[in-house]
Specification:
The protein is α+β, with helices and mostly antiparallel strands. It is built from three helices and four strands, in the order βαββαβα. The protein has a single domain, classed as Alpha-Beta Plaits. 42% of the residues lie in helices and 28% in strands.
Length: 102
């Protein structure tokens, strides 16, 4: 399972507002069929493989370019765990919370 946080940042838009660009990127990620969670500072994505994630990310970047951005800067944090399967982001958070209680 691949868990990632993605930030797709439009540059050269002439405005400090980026909502429409982020909306386009998130819509493209959601259309990929991956599990997507929008947060205030990035978007969390769960995928079965890095390739699946990269394909969805490429689509998200293209969506921002289609909105008129002259440049797109993307930040990707990715956790590709293969010694265990099926661990969702909620499972990962729960594990940390459980450790706090110990």
């Amino acid at each position: 399972m691949v868990n990632a946080e993605i930030s797709v940042i439009p540059i050269g838009t002439g405005s400090s507002s980026v909502s429409e660009y982020v909306a386009a990127a998130v819509s493209e990620l959601e259309a990929s069929g991956l599990r997507v969670t929008l947060t205030a500072t990035g978007t969390s994505v769960e995928a079965d493989s890095p390739g699946e994630l990269f394909e969805a990310l490429a689509g998200a970047q293209e969506a921002v370019f289609r909105q008129g951005a002259g440049r797109v800067y993307t930040i990707l944090k990715m956790d590709d765990r293969r010694d265990e399967t099926g661990r969702s982001q909620e499972d990962m958070v729960r594990s940390v919370r459980d450790s706090q209680e110990d």
